[in-house]
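Run log, item B.
One chain of 364 residues. Sequence copied directly from the ordering sheet:
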Amino acid sequence: MNKKFAIIVGLQALIIVTLFWTLIFYGKDEYEKYRTEQEEEIESPSRVNELEGVNTITLPLDTQLNSGIQTAKIERTTYQGEIKSFGHVVSIDRLIEAKAQYLNLQSNIQLSRASSAQKIQQYQRLKSLNDDDKNVSDLAVQESLANVNTDKNNISATELQLKNLQRTVELQWGKELAKIAFSDNLAPHLSGLLNKNNVLVQISLPLNAVSPLKNSTIKITPLTETFKPVTAIYVSAATVSDANGFGNTFYYSAPAELLRIGMRVNVEVDPVSGDESKGVIIPSNAVVWYAGKPWAYFKHATHKNADSKSISNEFVRKPISTDTEIDAGWFNQGIDAKNEVVISGAQLLLSEEFKYLIKNENDD
């Protein structure tokens, strides 16, 4: 009896399992058909079309208004770019040492000339006495003449040493800075270097930058500090290159209050008058980021719908440059100023386009 009962229960279980899988097998196609129909019923019409490899988003004007999408005309502008670079504070100890050496040589020459003048007078007196019946010996006259010639040779040697010093300093520092060592009449920015009220700053500028003009200025700040920019005045072209080999180098004189020898500095050079670039302003709120790059949406065209009562606008996403920031946004070139740019709702347009891209990938 127990054996028959177990067989009956087993058969019933087998029938139930068979019926269950039969129901799933035949109901699967119906379920997929129903789900597809439901999705097709709620799927919104695609607003994105591809034209010559470019995605265009078409939106009715009512949809734009409801979504808060706004556009604005692009403004033309001109831009004078600042040149930003680096520099470092240079020690002028060797220049000051050269000045001390120069003063010492000058002093030696003056003393030698004074001594030589006395010896010349002595020689002339002895020579006159010798000529007058040999009142002094020929030997005394010869010794006096030898002393005169020795002083002349010493003076000539010291003067040559002085010229060599001047030549060396000019080669090392340039003629303008050499004035610190060899001139007493110095401009304020040079005398400031000598009395340590100023420091000498060597800066580098790009090779295509215009060379500084006399008495022109730049703004510098210590590399790791947040002080207000310091105004430095142009001195001359530098005679040595930057350690990093970057561009042309120039010397500037700057107040020493915040600057120390060896300190690295940031440099900002005002643009040269007349050196302007023409372009347009892309407002900051028009920029969207996609794939790590900046973009903006522009109104591409306006269409009247078939009923001639409603209007639709086409929008196209284009890459822009964020290299040059200005007060109103970003300076760009190569964009037609007649276009309108989306200044509100650009992110919504990107989402709409992104949905289209995902759909295409799934279809593939």
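Observations after the first pass:
- The chain has a mean pLDDT of 81.
- The CA atoms of residues 201 and 211 lie 16 Å apart.
Flagged for discussion on Thursday.
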